[in-house]
What does this fold into?
Amino acid sequence: MEKKNIDWSNLGFGYIQTDFRFVSNYKNGAWEEGVLTEDANVVINECAGVLQYAQTVFEGMKAYTTSDGRIVTFRPDLNGERMEQSAKRLEMPVYPKEKFVEAVLKTIKANEAYVPPYGSGATLYVRPYMFGSNPVIGVKPADEFQFRVFTTPVGPYFKGGVKPLTIRVSDFDRAAPNGTGHIKAGLNYAMSLHAIVDAHKQGYDENMYLDAGSRTKVEETGGANFLFVTKDGKVVTPKSHSILPSITRRSLMQVAKEYLGLEAEEREIYLEELQDFAECGLCGTAAVISPVGKIVDHGKEICFPSGMTEMGPVTKQLYETLTGIQMGTIKAPEGWIVEVK
Ligand code: PLP
Ligand code: COI
It folds into this structure.
């Protein structure tokens, strides 16, 4: 198989149309088998549930070329499980986990020519999603749905690669205490668009959202969870029912304990304690681990000792171990790596 002629090392995080995508429709209470198609367009009724009431959920994952030339993906079962939770919360039918993983692997395989080579710094981003497709005008769930998976080759999520980010504490809320922050619903991202455009205008890379109830605790950013390292080398991450349970974060907590011998704890983290941490990073499929150098809270600057030029030492160890596992240079825990054959 010949790779596409793409300048892999200079890719940003954007959409490049690839050759195949997977489509399955839900009608009369059942999912059809689903097929790969070359048609990248979706044609739906003007009154479709997704267009009127944002009934849509999605996932984000990646395919990697390993050092020995295999194509693999990372913990796809967990994305399948999370999509199940997301679908249930928005009154959508569950696309079964096994079928989800099968569809993802099939779509990656069909787009093999777009999986960036090992060492290029790029990966193939995989986007499974589902939406209400039939007309709905009273506020209620659709009863027909479409599940799709497409892929796009991507480079780093944040421009500048691993240069530490500057984040501001946002005055906007991302998720209500008993809302939908813990699922991957398109509506959560619509909520964050004004805040991110405004943050960029003011010169910040991302927003730190606080808990909407008390506005004293750290939640997450628009597209990644937070990780902090204490001055005595412990890894801590916010515990909250209104943040997305990041698969990268859950994996990193295990990596910290089992590979690096560090203490790792999920707990409530107060805005007030940020100044006590030694390192900060954002973690997610797109973000991988992106170091944060500075957080600005309404003019008050919290500068992490790791500085604005390099990743902090613990963040770097976490980054190298996780990406080593994903690229096949470090032995993975059982079940984390699934080969695309
Ligand atoms: N938080 C939000 C809001 C996200 O959009 C993402 C991306 O998926 C994450 C966290 C990270 O989750 P994961 O590591 O599963 O990609
Ligand atoms: C991901 O990391 O997969 C995300 O979904 C984050 C962002 C691109 C929305």
User: Anything to note?
Assistant: Residues 234 and 263 are 5 Å apart (CA to CA). The two ends are 13 Å apart (CA to CA). Residues 8-154 form a domain with the D-amino Acid Aminotransferase; Chain A, domain 1 fold (CATH 3.30.470.10).
